[in-house]
From TrEMBL:
One Pfam family here: SBP_bac_1
Alphabetized UniProt keyword annotations: Signal
Keyword Endoplasmic reticulum: no
Keyword Nucleotide-binding: no
Protein name: Sugar ABC transporter substrate-binding protein
Gene3D superfamilies reported for this sequence: Periplasmic binding protein-like II (3.40.190.10)
Annotated signal peptide: 1-24
Domain of life from the UniProt record: Bacteria
């Protein structure tokens, strides 16, 4: 998968192997809780995430007498591989970070505890933004508590744009104006700099595109696509036209971009990029030029496609022997002042005004820009959709694969859309 929407790179994921933090008596991933007062907590992420959460868990233990927490973490792909194995063995960590990509799958198979009884008592969500507070619910049951607010965004390298004699797009841009602008940038730089990274393979961005057309991505029951085959074909044809006109890098460049370090906006091969808003921190850390944030393009008179919600949550294993203590830990992670300040924005924009105010962010800092962007969306953001349905991960992988086939000339937008739609029925209806 190629750019910042890749779930493997979500929130600064680095290409590392599995590692375990010996915060207490936890020697390796897969250890069992040692009894009352002992918990295992697991998460995925890059170094910034690990450092913050290790510090937070150490502080939790120092301020909660008798509580021991073994922290375990891994890169995104390794995390889900290990968690799948442990879930099958009924040995999941007590507290675990859940990505919306897999959330409904785990909730649906009975792997997560219904936390409803803890909400408003042990776990306080009263200060959270509406979109975050409402996340984590499947079929009326609470299986997760959101950690942060996130939204789709566009990252802009103004300096690079102006260096090729172009102007930064205006905030009222459309998908058509993006295409014209991106191709002009590519042509004026003789193909050295494309206007935008290639987003054809990212289902996470196709969703707001569909919403702008007045279509939900999935049916209410999550058993089928609600966005029609014609819209999928239109999406892939749009990006194929951009590739042909030098508006995006070649398919080989996109396929080779497997991490933030090789992202086209970092390597200077694209002037703008798309991603989750908090990822500006990780991109900016690899660049000298200052990045700005814009909303994604819309249609002329299009409906709001953006939404703000929590794509990552804290959940409790259904097999946990210490669910009460696990709930207390989750409440600490999302509400304690020390935890809020230490975690900052590495997991996304803090989910409440109280949390944001605690951080006292410099407005021009990457984190400050991310917060300001989310808070300023207003009526550009619509009501969040329900949690992605069971099979979403498989569907997202298929979407990326077909887009790559189109990019390399092994398929066409028409054939690709037909194949995607046909296979989606099997995946979602299974």
């Amino acid at each position: 998968m190629s750019d910042v929407f890749s779930r493997r790179r979500f929130l600064g994921l680095s290409a590392m192997g599995l590692s375990t933090v010996a915060l207490s008596a936890c020697g390796s991933w897969g250890g069992k809780s040692s009894g009352s007062g002992s918990l295992r907590a697991a998460w995925y992420g890059g170094d910034a995430v690990h450092t913050a959460l290790e510090k937070v868990l150490a502080h939790y233990q120092s301020t909660h007498s008798g509580q021991k927490v073994g922290g375990e973490h891994a890169a995104f792909a390794d995390y889900w591989s290990k968690l799948s194995t442990e879930t099958a063995a009924r040995n999941s960590p007590d507290v675990m970070r859940m990505s919306m990509t897999y959330f409904t799958d785990y909730a649906g198979r009975g792997a997560l505890l219904d936390m409803t009884k803890y909400i408003g008592k042990t776990i306080d969500i009263s200060k959270m933004e509406e979109g975050v507070a409402g996340s984590g619910v499947v079929d009326g049951k609470r299986y997760g508590v959101g950690q942060s607010s996130i939204a789709n965004a566009v990252f802009v390298n103004r300096e690079l744009i102006e260096s090729v004699g172009a102007k930064v797009p205006t905030a009222d841009w459309t998908w058509d104006s993006l295409a014209s602008w991106a191709k002009a940038v590519g042509q004026s730089s003789n193909g050295k700099v494309a206007g935008t990274s290639d987003q054809s393979g990212h289902l996470e961005l196709f969703e707001p595109y569909a919403r702008q057309h007045g279509k939900s991505l999935f049916t209410t029951d999550g058993k089928a696509l609600a966005a029609g085959q014609d819209l999928v074909e239109q999406w892939w044809a749009y990006w194929q036209d951009l590739r042909a006109g030098k508006g995006t890098p070649a398919a080989s460049v996109t396929a080779a971009a497997t991490g933030f370090e090789t992202d086209p906006i970092v390597t200077g091969k694209a002037a703008i990029d798309f991603g989750w808003v908090q990822q500006i921190q990780f991109l900016q850390g690899l660049m000298k030029q200052e990045l700005e944030i814009m909303t994604i393009p819309n249609l002329p008179n299009g409906k709001p496609g953006l939404y703000v919600d929590s794509q990552d949550m804290w959940s409790i294993a259904a097999t946990s022997t210490n669910p009460d203590a696990a709930a207390e830990l989750i409440n600490y992670l999302v509400n304690d002042d020390f935890a809020i300040k230490t975690i900052g924005v590495v997991l996304g924009v803090p989910p409440s005004k109280h949390a944001v105010d605690l951080l006292s962010l410099e407005p021009k800092s990457p984190a400050g820009k991310a917060v300001a962007y989310v808070q300023g969306l207003g009526d550009k953001a619509a009501t969040p959709p329900p949690p992605w349905p069971k099979g979403y991960s498989q569907l997202s992988t298929l979407f990326t694969k077909i887009s790559q086939d189109i990019g390399f000339g092994r398929s066409t937008p028409s054939k690709g859309a037909a194949s995607f739609y046909s296979q989606s029925k099997q995946i979602l209806g299974a």
